[in-house]
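Dear support,

Our group has been running a series of protein-ligand predictions, and this particular one with zinc ion is the one our PI (initials K.S.) wants archived with full inputs and outputs. We had some confusion internally about which version of the output was final, so please treat the block below as the authoritative record. The input we submitted was:
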Amino acid sequence: MHRTTPSDDQTEVIRRHLVERHGQTEVDPARDVSCPGHPAGDALVVFFPERPGTSPSFVCARCEGRIFPAGPPSYGHPLRAAHLVRTSPVVAALGCGLDHDQRLALIGAYERGLLGTELLALTARAQALRTRKSDRPVVEERRQTCQRYLIDEVSRGASVDDALWTLVLHAADDPVRYGQFVGGTYRPLSRDAYRGYWRALAAHVRTTAIERSRALRQAAERCGPQATPRALRDAR
Ligand SMILES: [Zn+2]
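Confirmed final output from the archive:
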């Protein structure tokens, strides 16, 4: 992290820039790349070494001051990790109670964008564990009933959002009917959970319902508020 001249990989990024964007046939780092401690008077490129909070980068005289990344930063480097712990409350909180190596591993995963995926996988596993075996047919039945309901609502002209809200409102307004409707014990779900059911439907099923909904609404606009179902059907 402390080096001021570009590494071989970083030099290669700069070389590719000059060759591919500017058609330069020969690149001489000593002549074409200026960097701290090694200034080059007519250099096209000025290289900025990596700092704990920034990635290595360069600017190119022919690209009007734009800044380009010169490859990835040193993920998991102790200096970079220490900087992140100091500047990011999220990283600091997540790293609480971990020892040095564990914290480096966690920050490495965070920086590579893997933390969210890992957390989601953990949540899904925990959710699967919470769903007891004996509950599964009920859960499956509830899912299918809600999916059928959503398809029907959307096919009848509701937007997906409205259909999701209708399910939430049914659950709140009339628990008994809702319980009978979705089967099993009464268990209202969040709008996101219903949305999950909707998204679990095959894409073509969703698209067909949405297209039908759109056609119905357009027909309703053409026919006006007094339109009968028959007039709407004919107008499609
Ligand atoms: Zn350039």
